[in-house]
């Protein structure tokens, strides 16, 4: 018998084919379940009404009740706005509408009483409310609602224009809840419900839409967050068990000549953290299981050497290794690095990128097939289908966030035995997010920088100080140092950005005239040869200044550079700024990061800039980024294909729920690692649901193992 929550939404009274199609298109609602799991994003407390004279803070949403005493319009064109003045016994306040002016005009009638909900803001010394919600009193303000906490759902213009206002939507939820009343099946095992002290699913779904009171709402929320995060963790941890239970891990019997050759010639002592991580990797490669390890290390922590030494262990055991980098510039840099460290060792390294010439390409293909090439370094080109390895045993993916899930899966298919995989990232991922995104990976952390690094001094500079800043760069160049000057590159306005860069470049060349000063330039519109040429000029110290778009952000290593200027710094995210800053401070000299912005900054931008100036801790910045922007926006999560749709949890704030959900999930799996037993049927059903809905990408991830 089919389950009522699986019913199509068109069968709900009040929704026909047309509205059903609209709900699916606008909100992704197809079934009763989808509808029930579309939660309010906030609540109005109908029991609390503010007096206008009591408004004293612009921080919170509040409710007012009064009459509209005047309607007027002001401004022209884009600035045109409608102002409705609301009066209660205590005072008056302007309600301001910039959008949908006509529509609002038709909706508001003077001298009627309204309940107004919105966020007060201060303008010219007086309080007003921008785009508040308005309800005529009597229609909804009183007894027709089942509780005093009213859920507010997000809506769209299309829905509103087709008769599904927020209020109608709430009514539909009410109808639905009545229809399924008594028929909702519990999704969590009873033991978990009682040990975590959760309310039932029925209680939670009822109270998330129509809270009886604040306590019930909190309990409902907790239950739904827990459920969401629990199944996510269960899925990730179970995948890990699946991977662990497979016996198919390549066994690297020995550490041999190639490794020892390189190790004994290192120009420096490895840091304690580097040694520890290499040991962890070594352990994985003799465990009989496939390694899937994430290596996190702040910029400059020395991940490359860890990758090289681990790759050499593969080579020592007769396997090939492959290192994948996100950009050509970076692939070339890695290749040079490997060549420099390994020349004379007998280990053969090759470079394969989009601009490898056909003849050379054929040669590489041959060398990969017959096994004479030991280590292949390259960009996305290395995962194309026509690249065939003789015996691939170890894969390094550098700066992982530029690679999609399916690309990793393709790499995995390049070998009959699954190669060990090391994913390296310099984007410090906050614990909560790491747990969620990489719950099925083992994580190593390089938490120690090579000795002698001095913290980079970070300074905020505005346009007026530009030439003083240039003079400062000159003084650094005089000391023999080099400088980066970076411009933002944002896809949507590439031509504009390019224009800015050109302009900036001209200004630099004028102020830093050749031959005294040599300026190199690198950007996305150049040919690869030109890019490589200018990059090399700078890397070899022949150019003093490198003007670049943010292409240089990942991994470029020029230890002699001591100044990083970031133009329009307000347009970069925190972790991107941190990445860029990490390009300097690599040598022994004191280094500087200069954040250029316009004079006027939004509150958010100002906060970011201030944070950058006050801390150099990548993890602290990443946590702040997560709090400020939410995980969906975190650099990297979206591109990685791992971003997913959490309906109610907020990874920035729900760390404790996540931790509890994870520990309960781990407990369940300790008893039944693959969830194969009969009592686990309920949990298997939950995972199936996850697979059908938002968790798709997460599940796909398992194709790697
Ligand atoms: P990242 O982790 O950002 O990829 P790199 O691997 O590029 O860092 O290393 C940054 C710099 O530190 C390089 O110049 C590298 O040669 C140097 N380095 C790496 N390990 C050590 C070490 N143990 N001692 C001193 N310098 C090191
Ligand atoms: Mg690197």
From TrEMBL:
It catalyses: ATP + H2O = ADP + phosphate + H(+); Couples ATP hydrolysis with the unwinding of duplex DNA by translocating in the 3'-5' direction. It holds the Pfam family RecG_dom3_C. InterPro entries: ATP-dep_DNA_helicase_RecG (IPR004609), DEAD/DEAH_box_helicase_dom (IPR011545), Helicase_ATP-bd (IPR014001), Helicase_C-like (IPR001650), NA-bd_OB-fold (IPR012340), P-loop_NTPase (IPR027417), RecG/Mfd (IPR047112), RecG_dom3_C (IPR045562). Residues 284-446 form the Helicase ATP-binding domain. Residues 465-627 form the Helicase C-terminal domain. Keywords: ATP-binding, DNA damage, DNA recombination, DNA repair, DNA-binding, Helicase, Hydrolase, Isomerase, Nucleotide-binding. The keyword Iron does not apply. Its EC number is 5.6.2.4. It is an enzyme of class 5 (isomerase). GO terms for biological process: DNA recombination; DNA repair. GO terms for molecular function: 3'-5' DNA helicase activity; ATP binding; DNA binding; hydrolase activity. It comes from the Bacteria. The keyword DNA damage applies. Plays a critical role in recombination and DNA repair. Helps process Holliday junction intermediates to mature products by catalyzing branch migration. Has replication fork regression activity, unwinds stalled or blocked replication forks to make a HJ that can be resolved. Has a DNA unwinding activity characteristic of a DNA helicase with 3'-5' polarity. Belongs to the helicase family. RecG subfamily. PANTHER family: ATP-DEPENDENT DNA HELICASE HOMOLOG RECG, CHLOROPLASTIC (PTHR47964). This is ATP-dependent DNA helicase RecG.
